[in-house]
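Input sequence (79 aa), recorded before submission:
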Amino acid sequence: MLDAEAAVAGGLISTVQWLLKHGVSAGARLRTSGNVEQTMLHVAARNAAPAVVPLLIPAGADVNARDGGGRTPPLVAAE
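Predicted structure, token format:
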């Protein structure tokens, strides 16, 4: 199985495109390796993977979604 967190964190555009095309929601909540619930957009922000952001937002990722710690993707990016 493909690991959505690893694909987003690594900026693997073709893998993220495949995941989105095959039904993984851009707003899906992932239990990350740090055991925190985050969306794929949070993961991209946390890992400085801007290449995948233009794929996620048009696919429905919510820039105002809160992670398990109450943080939005822009706040995660600023940390």
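Checked by second reader. The two ends are 30 Å apart (CA to CA).
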